[in-house]
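I hope you will forgive my troubling you with a question about protein structure. I am sending you one protein, given as its amino acid sequence and as whole-number tokens for its backbone shapes. Thank you for your consideration; the sequence and its tokens are set out here:
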Amino acid sequence: MLTSLIKSIMGRPRRTFIASLIFNLAIALIVIGGFVSFVYAAEPGTEDAAQAADTGLKYLGAGLAVAGSTIGAGVALYGATSAGSAALVERPELSVWVLILAGLGEGVAIYGLIIAILILGG
């Protein structure tokens, strides 16, 4: 999905691409800023404020780990399935190798989930 989005954007003029890139980065910064403001929303001066900040940052880190790994897995699976289907048309005996490569791509998402569990458990 991400690569098809990039391909559709790259087909546009350069000026439109840069404008949409700046817009998307601004939206991302606003969203991340909103998350960080919720993390530090506890009343200052209390001992719970530091603990709330730590807990909120744990959740933010775990979410970023899962989000990044699933995006990476999606890109890997896109490449493995498109190249794998082309290879299977020419040589059907490569089906085992295509499944192995797709499984390696899915492993990236599992590793991100494990990291998120370790972040939340610590």
